[in-house]
From TrEMBL:
Domain Glycosyl hydrolases family 2 sugar binding: 32-190
Provenance organism: Promicromonospora alba
Protein name: Sugar-binding domain-containing protein
Every Glycoside hydrolase family 2 catalytic domain range: 353-562
Segments of this protein annotated with the region Disordered: 1-25
Length: 969
């Protein structure tokens, strides 16, 4: 009979929980961490020579486990024949003379990912003696290896126990019964591709963690009682404030028995006044239909316990991560002998669902703000299994306003779930599969069955964690993926309905999905190049994805948005003190030095990084502006060092700042509550009213009552204008709250000026509640004079290079405006930085990473700018062409310099000045066309001509006519 009884204070000691007599797994476990003998077996002779019987070859070194062999220096030097796991799209490394110095045997350096100090692919053998205690007589023994890469085979003495091949959960071996005393334990680990899950799957690929060999995490040998708790599954019911505890019990072959199950729950991870005493439910043997009527038979049984949590039970979410520790105590009697086993798990009172086109947590709509974790751990080459490491990563993500980690084609260790549970952070887990680039699903290959195996393991091992709210099979499949994954979704949603399922990250979008994780609704898609929204259309902040929302009945989570690159941070190389080395950065630094620009590396990083941040802001805000949108996954908040070196993060692979962005700045436009301004344009003229509409995306814990205000501030943060949008406005959960249009009168902004529009949402006091801090967001705008400017008659403006050479040579001051068709190089110049990277995308446009210039230079006196690309440069870059300056004197630095991709490191310019003959010249390949609605172009042209006509125009460098002709090639 199920009963509820009072329990002691949870802070008091619980003898049942701590007494080793009642927790046999704690007393009866041997920690196997420490020194093991190790032998590499590249030729697979160990089994033929029976190393498990004879011992490892003489002279085999000792290694520390948990750990990997590569991290401890065992393996081969990297060479041109290294059998990498991972596709190499740009194979020019193996043939291009530019890479010849890096193909020398004593100087191997690859440009496409981080390079391990040593490499090994094959079998490695690990061996040690273990002493089995005397009181293990008659008890079954289990070996558990928390995380193995990849296939393990185990022998005890001369007896082969079996093999395991999971990439996601612990390898567990039923050893049987061991006699007391010393035994030889041998484990063979093979890190070759056991199943073709795809060469680029982050579970195995050298693009990410590296193809390591070894065992990490907990390594234990444990003795179990005759009857054990095999699995505990907790199914919360938020409305009923209860949980259904589903208990699977495993029994040995000793025959029938009886027993009882006692279930208790203790709340923790919640501030003081919300810590009531535990709740208990007991199942007594004499009243349990499962245990008494059916009996405890050989093989086990199953018990369901309904556990009331009380009317005051707290739910779990990103704002209030209340957790419960569940203890299941099993007491059984088999053949007159009592057996006890205790299992514990953590759960939260949490339900995830769908309300039309948005995800809900406990019935409240939320907005997924995710980023990828791609198993990038450069110091070790394998993922951490300690909670502290994951707490740090999650804290960094939360500081940037995110609420989810998507584990791209891999499943993290238990510690990641624990840290996410504690922090109230959401997790999307994926199977260890990227069945593409030669692999495929639904074609009766071994990967089909393997995916089902791994999915079951993941759900059984980690399914109770409340942070685990979403699951995909893996990433971007090929094959008969739609029909195969339709069945996969239905199967596992039925098996474990505690989370949402989607077929795959990227595709296919099938009706069986709970949500679609697709790549279409984002600012820049694969292959769009200079036609993408941010490159092909004037800047505004009105675009959204409403058509996508209306096109399907399910939530859409944008797949891998962003992918904007920043320049390499060469100062980062000192951080790589472990297994992985950034030899790729060494190559790129050499290219930059050879081009005479090594001194610009730091400013290239900063200028490209500020443009990257600008693009991420617009990408994220477009998603937040879309009413009913489900959310997004960034690719990514941190850099991805593989796939050709994809420096797409505002953080480096160590989850640290690269110096051009802060978490506070990022969180202004990425968080639970974000003010938004819908602006039809970024550039205005003095005779135009600045018009915008305020929108609020609010996915906080409760609706808000708030004052909504705006202000225009100048570069010194001086307010130029302010206004009230609404007082005490009620802002419900969602992003459909839009207020009427605001028009800022003309004449308030002196021209030319760069100003910031700041929108504030300030919660107001309600009753005894204090008002909260304001949520703020801001947008840079530019206001230029409306009148046309007259060109000074002292400057000759021409588009003909011959005329420019002749007149400047004779002493004139010349502005040469080059048309894009007159410049013959293949550099694709765009507004945005490069997408992913030019090597992996086969040279997709754009090839550049923004502009570098000195904002204090007098050429910009009438054109406010900050030294990097901002939205006022869009008109000037759209339709423009970069010039190659490599044949000009190296001391000549352009006034405006596009930053080239690090794979090429070409000296580029779009505006430079020089002395030519007895005259002076400025050469521009920017789009300075002043006609029509091009106020920014007119203004820069005016500023440039005023500079050239003034006393400040004194170029330091000199060129000859042949130098000038060279930029046309």
């Amino acid at each position: 009979m199920l009963t509820v009884e009072s329990m002691p204070d949870p802070d008091a000691s619980d003898p049942d929980a701590t007494d080793p007599q009642t927790v046999p797994e704690a007393r009866s476990a041997l920690d196997l961490s420490g020194r093991w003998r190790c032998a590499l077996d590249p030729d697979a002779v160990g089994e033929l020579e029976q190393w498990f019987r004879t011992g490892l070859p003489e002279g085999s070194p000792a290694v520390a486990l948990p750990g990997s062999i590569q991290h401890q220096g065992l393996g081969d030097p990297v060479g041109l024949e290294t059998p990498w796991t991972g596709s190499i799209v740009d194979r020019s490394y193996f043939t291009d003379e530019r890479y010849a110095p890096y193909r020398e045997p004593d100087n191997i350096a690859v440009p496409f990912w981080l390079q391990p100090r040593v490499y090994f692919r094959g079998a490695a053998w690990f061996q040690r003696e273990v002493d089995v205690p005397a009181d293990w007589v008659g008890r079954d023994v289990v070996l558990s290896l928390e995380r193995v890469h990849w296939e393990s085979t185990v022998w005890v003495d001369e007896r082969q126990i079996g093999s395991e091949r999971s990439l996601t959960t612990a390898h567990r071996f039923d050893v049987g019964r061991l006699s007391p005393g010393r035994h030889l334990l041998t484990i063979r680990v093979d890190n070759r591709t056991v199943v073709d899950v795809g060469p680029n799957a982050h579970s195995i690929s050298d693009h990410t963690q590296g193809n390591w060999n070894g065992m990490v995490g907990a390594l234990t040998l444990a003795a179990l009682p005759e009857v054990t708790i095999r699995r505990v599954r907790v199914v919360p019911d938020v409305a009923a404030r209860s949980a259904l505890v589903k208990i699977d019990i495993a029994a040995g072959s000793g025959g029938a028995g009886t027993g009882s199950v006692r279930v208790t729950a203790r709340r923790f991870n919640v501030p003081g006044e919300h810590e009531p005493g535990p709740v208990s439910a007991t199942f007594e043997a004499g009243h349990s239909r499962d245990l008494a009527e059916r009996g405890l038979t050989a093989g086990g049984t199953h018990v369901d316990v309904l556990l009331p949590l009380g009317d005051d039970a707290l739910t779990w979410d990103e704002f209030h991560p209340a957790l419960y520790e569940l203890t299941v105590e099993l007491v059984t009697d088999v053949r007159g002998s009592e057996h006890r086993h205790v299992a514990r798990t953590v759960f939260g009172l949490r339900e995830v669902g769908v309300d039309e086109t948005q995800v809900t947590i406990n019935g409240r709509r939320t907005f997924i703000r995710g980023t990828l974790e791609s198993c990038v751990f450069p110091l070790t080459g394998y993922p951490p299994t300690d909670v502290a490491s994951w707490r740090r990563i999650i804290a960094v993500c939360q500081a940037h306003g995110l609420n989810l980690l998507r584990f791209h084609s891999w499943c993290p260790p238990e510690a990641a779930f624990v840290a996410a549970d504690e922090a109230g952070f959401y997790v999307q887990v994926e199977g260890p599969v990227w069945a593409n680039q030669g692999a495929a699903l639904g074609e009766a290959r071994p990967v089909d069955a393997y995916l089902y195996e791994e999915t079951r393991r993941i759900l059984d091992a980690y399914g109770n964690h409340p942070s685990f709210i979403m699951m995909a099979h893996g990433n971007e499949p090929a094959g008969r993926d739609a029909e195969f994954l339709a069945s996969w979704v239905n199967t596992w949603r039925t098996y474990d309905p505690r989370r949402l399922y989607t077929s795959g990250a990227g595709w296919p979008a099938i009706t069986e999905n709970d949500f679609d994780n697709i790549p279409d609704p984002r600012a820049h898609r694969w292959g769009e190049g200079l036609e993408s929204r941010l490159n092909g259309h004037p800047p505004e902040t009105e675009s959204d994805y409403g058509e996508w929302v209306r096109s399907r009945p399910r939530p859409i989570i944008s797949h891998e948005i962003g992918q904007w690159c920043a320049y390499p941070d060469f100062a980062e190389t000192s951080k790589y003190t472990g297994l992985m080395e950034p030899r790729n950065f060494g190559i790129f630094a050499d290219f930059l030095r050879e081009a005479g620009m090594a001194d610009q590396a730091e400013v290239f990083l900063y200028a490209s990084g500020r443009l990257q941040l600008l693009c991420y802001k617009e990408d994220i805000e477009a998603a937040l502006r879309t009413e009913g949108f489900g959310g997004f996954h960034l690719l990514g908040l941190s850099d991805f060092p593989g796939q050709g070196t994809a420096l797409v993060g505002v953080l480096n692979p160590f989850w640290e700042s690269k110096g051009y962005s802060t978490a506070e700045e990022f969180a202004r436009f990425c968080g639970p509550t974000v003010p938004l301004a819908r602006l039809p344009r970024r550039v205005w003229t003095a005779d135009q009213e600045i018009e915008f509409e305020v929108q609020v995306a609010h996915f906080g814990p409760t609706p808000l009552d708030a004052d909504v205000t705006w202000s225009l501030v100048d570069a010194n943060d001086t307010e130029l204008a302010t206004g009230v949008v609404a007082r005490g406005a009620h802002i419900p959960i969602g992003n459909g709250t839009r207020f009427g249009s605001v028009a800022v009168p003309t004449g308030l902004v002196p021209t030319p000026a760069q100003v910031r529009l700041v929108v504030s949402v300030t919660p107001v006091a309600s009753g005894e509640d204090a008002a909260g801090a304001a949520f703020q967001n801001d947008w840079d705008l530019w206001v230029y004079p409306a009148a046309e400017h007259e060109a000074p008659d002292t400057v000759l403006v021409t588009t003909e290079i011959g005329e420019a050479v002749e007149r400047a040579g004779a002493g004139a001051t010349v502005l040469l405006e080059l048309a894009p068709e007159s410049i013959g190089n293949d550099v694709a110049l765009g507004f945005t930085p490069a997408f992913w990277n030019t090597a992996w995308t086969a040279g997709q446009a754009p090839h550049t990473l923004g502009l570098l210039h000195d904002p204090a230079h007098p050429v910009f006196r009438h054109f406010p700018t900050e030294g990097s690309t901002d939205w006022q440069w869009w008109e000037l870059l759209h339709g423009a062409k970069a010039m190659l300056l490599d044949r000009l004197p190296q001391r000549l630095r352009p006034l405006v310099q596009p930053i080239d991709t690090w794979f090429e490191a070409r000296r580029l310019g779009v505006l430079f000045e020089a002395n030519l003959g007895t005259g002076k010249i400025v050469v521009s390949s920017l789009n300075l066309d002043p006609s029509g609605d091009r106020a920014a172009a007119r203004q820069l042209r005016h500023s440039l001509l005023e500079y050239m006509a003034g006393d400040d125009f004194a170029p330091a460098g000199r060129i000859e006519a042949i130098d000038l002709v060279s930029v046309l090639r």
